[in-house]
Amino acid sequence: MKHPVTFVSLGPGDPELITLKGLKALQQADCIFYPATAGPNHRVVSRAGDILKALGMPSDALQPFFLPMSKGRETAKLVYAQIALRSIALHEEGKKVAIAAEGDAGFYSSSHYIYDDLTERRIPVTTIAGIPAFIASGALAGIHVVKQEEPLTVFPGTVSAEELRATLQEGKTAVIMKLSQCEAAVKVCMRQTAGHVWHYFENVGLESAFYTADCGVIEGKRFPYFSLMVIKP
Amino acid sequence: MKHPVTFVSLGPGDPELITLKGLKALQQADCIFYPATAGPNHRVVSRAGDILKALGMPSDALQPFFLPMSKGRETAKLVYAQIALRSIALHEEGKKVAIAAEGDAGFYSSSHYIYDDLTERRIPVTTIAGIPAFIASGALAGIHVVKQEEPLTVFPGTVSAEELRATLQEGKTAVIMKLSQCEAAVKVCMRQTAGHVWHYFENVGLESAFYTADCGVIEGKRFPYFSLMVIKP
Fold it and tell me: What does pTM read for this prediction?
């Protein structure tokens, strides 16, 4: 008997923010692939790995795959292609394969490269949804990201100051993911736009989570990898 | 000892799509308020109630509050104000109060009325995040709602055909919540816009979930209350 390859969303970082369904799929998996980077002294650096270990996943099921720290997407694609092939081999042996993704596996997740590879080869796949970081941010700060008739635009880190200003002037709430990629543009827009509240978040879902809505503090920040913003009219 | 009033997000409908943290908060609560409507023959109609019962919550903790079916927001506000007052009374007695919300409690959730009432009166509150319906829709259809550099705009049911067309022409992915409120506008735009994929969803998270990307089928549909769309360039 063969089982679909299951993409399991881990949520934003707090292990308890995984769903019951996601946890069950992980517990039943023979093999769990998860993204990592190689840190100093041969250390495996992985937020997904930290979540999986906190959830008590057995180490013999855990299979990290190492993504290049540089922005070379082509190298990363080779890594994803390898994981797709390894997943297919295990799937053909009747093994239950899980591919873990931080946040939600269908919302700005690089796991789509593996997913696309598998579906092109007609391997059955299934996805278990998870909480994106921007949703968890709202809960952390005690704000409603959007309510009633408020429209929302989410930018993935490539937004320009002009584009962001136009969105805010239309009265839309804006969420900016991958904030480190557009730090300069966001700061330019923040200096030039009055009357909005700029909610800044780092490491949402972790013990080290940081939140401020003080523009002075935000101005002095170097935006790290795990940062995002919610800007409200 | 007093405990913060906890807003617990239930997720999109499948009881197993609640988080571990959300389930734990519900299990520890002395009282769980949840939204309902009065159905025929004195029946309590409540998606939140169905989830809570499926999760095994004891009936003596469950407290439905009844929202008017009509769009009278003022009447609904009176109901929310009552729940805020009842929550405060229980909180002062040292009881653990949970307020359950479908989807995510901070994402187009009417529970913000209760939240705002409590915070204005300086009652400590906390929120546990959940999966919004549009995120679960992506998993259901096996699509990535957004990936890489794709921006996303979410409309809450008040979008016009012109506004939607402009968003799609900018190359943005669009999500439309509360689809029943803008059925005519969406259908007009769908007829006039070529080259996009229109993903239509009903009752995501339930057994009765329905999905199609066939514009002919969508055209013939009367959009129900629990429906939404993901439109991709």
Answer: 0.95
